[in-house]
């Protein structure tokens, strides 16, 4: 891991060296801020010896898939989509290790596709800040031998946004995103139908002008979290009535508002592992 006193340019140059040393690599590409920047860096370091692979599953909304397609065009990286429509039992049961099982399957599929193309190295977009959250999926990446060059180069989330802005990537100010399964509390079974109604409800909020939000699914209740600075947008009877009607039309019986607003990993509090918990297990 690099010294935190390094400049942004030094970290970026370190990242390019780490990627170039692979001789050829596949980027596990979700369309988010981190993996989008990693696609740019992979092309800069490897040119045509880089490939991006996106797993298309019920966990990933269509908006993220479209973003991935756009970024692939902008960066010039070759882009492959792999369909994974089944939700396996160890994922659908939704215990606190769900992300581990999901990542093990998805990255295993990416690794298999990479090897079929003669590429042994798979890169993921984990960064330095991810080490301070509860992310059991990181264990799966370690077991599979997936490399995380952003983290190795000492890049933080803000570093990645700053560099993305420098290189004119439209994702530089994109709100943070996590897979749709993260909207369902541990212990509540995950189904394609639940994921679909969450996706539709979040489209409603996006079209209403919200940027950073989550629709948490609690049975038939949609619990809306919006960024603290965006909560004021709800303070209109007309908006409340409109959102209530549209969100219920997505398949929920009730629409509720979380007073404290959006918090990353808020469902982890149920298992005592909120973001920045000192005892987080990876």
Would you summarize the structure shown here?
By secondary structure, the protein is α/β, with parallel strands linked by helices. The protein has helices at 8-20, 33-46, 62-75, 89-92, 98-116, 137-144, 149-152, 157-166, 192-207, 237-249, and strands at residues 25-28, 50-56, 78-83, 121-123, 213-218, 221-226, 254-257.
Could you explain the architecture of this structure?
This protein has 282 residues and is an alpha/beta fold. It has 2 domains: 166 residues, HUPs (Rossmann fold); 84 residues, Alpha-Beta Plaits, CATH 3.30.70. The protein is built from 10 helices and 7 strands. A 4-stranded parallel beta sheet has the order 3-2-1-4, with helices on both faces. It has a 3-stranded mixed beta sheet with strand order 5-6-7, with helices on one face. Helix 1 crosses helix 2. The longest helix has 19 residues. The two termini are 17 Å apart.
β-strand number: 7
Q: What is the gyration radius calculated from CA atoms?
A: 19 Å
Provide the residue-averaged pLDDT: 91
Number of alpha- plus pi-helical segments: 10
* Cα separation of the termini: 17 Å
Please list the strands of the largest sheet in the order they lie side by side: 3-2-1-4
Class per helix and strand makeup:
alpha/beta
The ordered H/E elements are HEHEHEHHEHHHHEEHE
| Contiguous runs where pLDDT drops below 50 for at least 5 residues | 274-282
Measured by DSSP, the beta-strand proportion falls in: 5-15%
CATH homologous superfamily annotation of the largest domain = HUPs
Largest sheet: 4 strands, parallel
Shape by Cα distribution: globular
CATH architecture call of the largest domain: 3-Layer(aba) Sandwich
The percentage helix is 40-55%
By CATH reckoning, the class of the largest domain would read: Alpha Beta
